[in-house]
C-alpha cells in the first residue's frame, strides 16, 4: 500500500442550472489574456451536444486516453513513444482552432467614434486572432440549450449507439448541463505523453500542472488528454490548463469555480488512495469494471491500517482528518451517488458527477400510475426523460444499472423526505430497497440539500 | 471552508524531489521551480471591495470586487450573507455569469469616458450662445428654428458625437430645462429611470430633481409589463412576494412561465434543493426551457393559453375539494380571507321570456338599505363601501369588519380587521333558507372567450342559487365562481359540462386540452396533487409565475386564474405557499425613505408621476396606428357602454375622470394657468374647472400632436429606453426622435379614429427637443441621444440595494474612483440642479405650478366613485368636482432658484406632515435628529439646519433612517398607528428591533437583514423567511381592497363590460385578424408567420450585458432568433443563417438558431437585443436592423386605466396600462447571406 492524497471534486449535475458562472469567473481570473482567448479551463456543455472542442468524446477520432494492448497492458491510445515521436511536428490527433472556435472581438470603438453618417453605428465582429471581419460560426458553447440541435446534438458521440432509442423531437426533448474542468486524473495520459517531462502531478495533492519553464510546446498532452482539457497558448506556444486554483487551494480557499458556483453543486475534498494499485485498476479488462476498480483504489480514511500507512508516508494528521470528513469520500464511497466521467478512458479521473434526475417523458396515461392517489407525486425512474443509456454512456461505461442505482437512491431520498416533512411517517421498506438507512439518507439529504459551505469544501 | 485545506501551503514543503511511479504512467513531483509564480502573481491582488450591481435585475447580489495596481481585475460573489438557520440552505453564493463579467465594462472600448454632444447640435448651440450670450436664449433659437431643429433631430442615431465637457453639457441641459419650463411648462420636462431598489440614491437624485422642478416622472413597472395588474385587482397591493428562501418551505411548486435557472439564477438552488426535501416541482412552459429539467412534470401549453389550463385546474379543485368533498381548512380560509361569501346583485337585462340575468355589483349596505332590507354588523358612514354577506348564524345580511369604509371613516377605527366575530358567512346559497325563503336556481349569462367573432367572445348560461332580498336578486361570489368554472351542482339550471371529458363546455380539463395542447389527464393529475398538497400541508403549495405568463395583453386574466388556485387552497399568507411573481419587481425594502427622498416629498407634494405606457402611446403617436378599439374587447355579456370607442378615447376619459394620470397636463403651461387664475382672482382649481367646462382649456392628451403638448426634454439614466424597453421602437424613432425608422404600419382608417382626440393630418416627427442619456455604455439610447454623459459604474459609487428575492439591504461601494471624466448620477444631477437654479435667477424665479393629480390609492380617494360606476362630467353625467369626479388640482409653489439647495437637504415636511406609506403616517422625529448628527446640517440658506444630503452616502443614510424596515423605531411607530385602525395587536411585530437601526456604514460591511415593518405584509420576526400577506392572515389585517379581502370578483363598470368580473380564460389577441398579412409581399418569398416571443435571456439582463464579450462568446455572438425545426424547414432556414423578421411595426435582422426544444409556430428573440452589436442592414428597409422591440407596439387595455374606486385606484407603478408585448406575430424568412453593415 502506498497512501497518497488527492484533492478531488464532485459536481452534482442534478443541481446544475447551466448558468456558466463558473466559466466566467474562471476565465476572468485565469484566461482573459492574449494567447488564451479561446481557452476555458472551466466550461459547461449542454447534453446532448458535441461539447468543446467539438466531438472531443469521440476517441476513435482523437485517440485520447488509454487503451489495453493485446497483452492487456495499458498504453496511450495516441500510440507508443515511436508513433508520437513520428508525429511530433504534425500531430494528426490535434484539434484545430475550428474545433474549438475562432474567438471574436467587436468593433466597440465605432459606437463612440463613428463620424456623422447615414446609419446607426454598430460594433461588428472581428476575429480576435486575425483582426479581420468575420461571421461568427462556432463558439465554446455554440449548442447551448440545444441550439442547432438537428445538426449538432445529433452528432453527440454518446448518441451514436442509441440512435434507435433517442429521437430529437420536441415531445421527447431532454437536456442537462455538464460543467467540466481538468480531471486531475490518478492516471493522467497528458503527463505520460509529455516528451519534455513538463507535466506533473503534485505529490501532496495530486493537482496536475504544466511546468511553464519546461514546456516545449510539443502538444502531445493535448491529444493524449481524452477530455481535451490541456490547451495551447498560441502566443507562448506552451500548454496551459486548469490548475485547480492551486494558489487558492494552498491558502485554504476553494477553487474559483466551486466558490462562485451559484447552483452550490461543487464539492471539494481530499481522498486517500493507494498509488500502487492505480495501474492495475486502470488495466481491468472490462470497461464496466473500471468504476469499481477505481473505487477500490480509494482508501478508507477511517481504517486504522490506512491511517497507519498514511502516517508512515508522512501525511499529516489534519490531512487524514480532512480525508475522513471529505464530502468526496461520502458521495463516492459512502453513498455511491457520484460517478466518474467516461471511466473507459482509463485515466482514473478525479472530478466525479452525481447524475441528473429529469422530468417524466410521457403523459400520465403511459405511466401506468394511479391517478386516484394524489399523494403519490413522484414518478418511477424508468420513465424519466433522460435515457438511462445516455447517462450510462457518460458515467459508467455503458452500465445502465449503475446509473439507475444512483437515481433510485436520489429518488428514495426525495420520497423519504417528503413523507417525513408532510406526515412525519417513513417507509423503511423503501429505503431498504436502495440499501440506505433513514439516518444515512438524511445525512445524504443534508449534504446535497442543506449543503452549507463548510460541508461542501 | 475546511480549515484542514489551509494546511496545504505549509505541507507542500514536506515533499521534496521528483519521483516517477513504477509504470511511468504518472510522474509525481513537487513543483520543480518557481515556474508557478505566474499563476500566484495573477491571483495576487491589493484589495477586495464589496459592492453590488445597480442593474435592473432582481439579483441584488453581493460581489467582492478585486483591485490590483489601482485597476479592477474581476469580481467574485460575496459569500457572507446572514444565515438562514441550521436546517435551510444559505443565500451564498449569489450571482450569475452576467454579473460575474460586469467588470469588463469598466475599461471597455465602448465605455462612455467623456461627455458627448452631437456635433451638429453643438455647433448650432455654440454659434447662438456666442452671439446671444445667454444659454436659454441660445437654446430657444436652436429649437424654435424649424430648419435647425430638423437638422439635428434627423442626425440622431447616425454617429457624429463630439467630446464636450461637463460644464458645457450641463449648461445645454439646464438651458433646455429652463426654456421648456418657461415656455411650455415644467411637465414637458420628463425623466425615465427604472426600479429604485437596485440603486436608490442614483434613482432618487434624478427623480428628486425632476420632482422639484415639476417635471414628469415616468413609471417603469407597468411599462415593462412586469406589473401584474391582477395584484392590485385582487389584493389592492402593487406586488408582494416571498423571498426565494421561502421556496424551501414549500412542498409543491409549479414554475409557471418562469424560467427560474435563467431569470432567478442566484436563487435557483433553493428550488433544486427543495426537491431533496420532497418538494414536487412542475414546470409549465411552451418550450423545453432550462427550468423544465428540474421539474418532475412538464406541461407545455400553447403560448398564451395558460389561463385555460389554470381555469381547468380550478375546475378540478372546485369539483373535488369544494363540491364533492369539503376541506375545513379551505372553507374557513375562503370565508375569512376572500370575497367568496359576499353577495352580488343579479341584474335583469330585457323582459319576459327573453330576460337574462347578469352579475352586477357587490350588494353593499347602501344598496341593501335602498332595496328595503335591514343590514346588521359593521355599519356606519359611507355605506356604499360596506359590502355584505349572509350571516347564517344570525340569518341576516351583515357587513363584516374590515371593509373599505372601515378603513377611512371614523366608524372604522379599531374595526378595520378580518375578525368574523360571531358571524358565519355562507359561501354558497345552495339549499339555504333565509328569512323563510329558500334560494332558487337562476340562470345567469357569463362570458366565455374561446368562441365568438370578436375578442369579446361569446356567452354561456349557467345557474346559480339566488335569493331575493328586498327588491334585488343576489347570489354569492363563490356561487358565481362555481358557475364560471363550470362546476355543476344538483338543482341548478343552465348548461353544464357532462364531465371532465366534455370538450365543449368551458372550464373542463378536456376543454382546456383542446386549447392548450396539455393532455386532460395531466391537467387533472397536477390539479389534484397541487390541491391535495395544500390540504395536507395547510397552504404550502406555491406557483412561481413569471414573464412568460405576465407579459400578455390579458395578463391580468391569466394571473387571476392562477391566484384563484392559490386562494381557494388557502396558500396565500402561508410560508412556503402562494404566488411568487418575479418579473422586474424589486422590492425597495426601505420604502418610506426611498419614496419620500426620491420624490422630494420632504419639500413639496405631490409629484408628477405618470404611467409610461399611456405617455408613450400618445407621445410616439402609436395611437394613430391602432388596429382595433375598445368595442372589439367588450363581452356580449356586458351592457355595452364601451362601444364605438378607440383606446385613445378611453385614455382621455380616464384622464378626465381622475382615474389615471395624464402629463403633460393641459394644452397650456401650468405656470401660466396659475398666473391667469391669480390675475382673475380665483383659486387655481376653480379657474381650471371653469376653463375645462367651457372648453377654453383642454387636457393635453386630447391633442397630443399639437406642438404645445409635446414632451420636450427627456433625461434617461440607469436605463436603455431606445435600445430595449421602448415597445414600438420604430414609432419612437419616427415620431418622438424624428430619426430614420423602419416603420411599415398604416394609420388607422378614418372610421376607427378617436372621437375625443384631435386628428392632425400629418403626424409630427421629432417632438423631442433634447434627449440626454446618462450611462457608461454606448447603447441605442446613447447612440440616439443628443447629449451622452459618462456615468460611474456600480464599482465606482456608493448606493444601497435591496430586492424581493432576499431580505437584506446592502451597499454599492467604490472600488475605484470614477475614471476618465465619469461622474456618479448623484453628482451629475446636483450639477444640473445648480445650473438650473443659476439660470432660473434670470428666467424663472418663483412660480406657481398646478398639478392635475389623479385619485390615489391608499387614500380616501378610493371612495370617490362608488360601485365603479362611470359618470363623466364632460357628458353632463355628474358635476365636475376636483378630487371626486375628476383629478385633484394641486397648487405647488416652486422657487426655481433654490433647486440646488433643496436637493442637498432633508426638507421640512417630514418633520411636519411626516411620512405616509400605504396609508400609515409616521412623524419620524428621532430619524431626523439622527440624520442631523450623522450627515450634518446645511449651514445657511433655504435649508438651514436641515440634515444634509450633499453626498450619495447621505441620501442612503436618510433612506435607511426614515424606513421601518431599517429603523426599528419607525417600524414600531407605524405598527402602533396601524394597530389603532385595525384594532388587533400588531406593534409586537416590531418590538424585537424597536431600538435597532441599519446604518449605511453597516451595509458597506455586508448584507444586513431588514426588520418587519408596516410597509410590507410579511414578517421576518424571529428570523422567519418573508412570505407576503402573513400579517393579513395571522393578524387579520385587511387587504387594501373594497371588501378588505382577496377578491375573486371585481365589479367596476368597465370590468363588467370586458367580461372580467371573475377569473376567466382569454386567449391571446388575434393579431392576424386585426392586422392582416404583415409579411414581405414579394413573389417567391418563402416565409412563415409565427408567434413572436421575447423571453428573458440567459446571456443578458434586460438592457445590460448583451454587449459584453464574455456573454457574446458564450452565446452566439450577436442577435439570434430561435426557430423550431418545422418552421425552419418551411422557410428554408438552416442553423446560423441570417434571417429577417418583419411585421407592420418594423424589421429585425438576426441569425437563426434552429432547435427541437422550440414548439412549432413560435419563435423567440431573447430580450434584450440592441442594435449596437453585429446588426447588419435589413433587406426589408435598407436600414440598420431593429431591436427586439422593433416588432412590437403598445397595446392598451382599457381596464388598466381604471381609477377612483377601491383597489382600482391609481398609484405610481401600482396601476396603469402595461407595455405588454407577447401577443405579436412576425413573419420570418431566410435573407441574402451576404450582409452589409
UniProtKB/TrEMBL annotation, chain B:
CDD domains to which the protein is assigned, alphabetical: MopB_CT_Nitrate-R-NarG-like, MopB_Nitrate-R-NarG-like
Membrane topology value: Peripheral membrane protein
Organism taxonomic ancestry: Bacteria, Bacillati, Actinomycetota, Actinomycetes, Micrococcales
Compartments it resides in: Cell membrane
A single BP term in Gene Ontology: nitrate assimilation
Record has Secreted as a keyword: no
Keywords: 4Fe-4S, Cell membrane, Electron transport, Iron, Iron-sulfur, Membrane, Metal-binding, Molybdenum, Nitrate assimilation, Oxidoreductase, Transport
Similarity comment text for this entry: Belongs to the prokaryotic molybdopterin-containing oxidoreductase family.
Gene Ontology terms for molecular function: 4 iron, 4 sulfur cluster binding; metal ion binding; molybdopterin cofactor binding; nitrate reductase (quinone) activity
InterPro entries: Asp_de-COase-like_dom_sf (IPR009010), MopB_CT_Nitrate-R-NarG-like (IPR037943), MoPterin_dinucl-bd_dom (IPR006657), Mopterin_OxRdtase (IPR006656), Mopterin_OxRdtase_4Fe-4S_dom (IPR006963), Mopterin_OxRdtase_prok_CS (IPR006655), MopterinOxRdtase_cofactor_BS (IPR027467), NarG (IPR006468)
Catalytic reaction list: nitrate + a quinol = a quinone + nitrite + H2O
Protein name per Swiss-Prot or TrEMBL: nitrate reductase (quinone)
Principal localisation: membrane
GO CC annotations, alphabetized: nitrate reductase complex; plasma membrane
EC number: 1.7.5.1
Cofactor: Mo-bis(molybdopterin guanine dinucleotide); [4Fe-4S] cluster
Residues covered by the 4Fe-4S Mo/W bis-MGD-type domain: 46-110
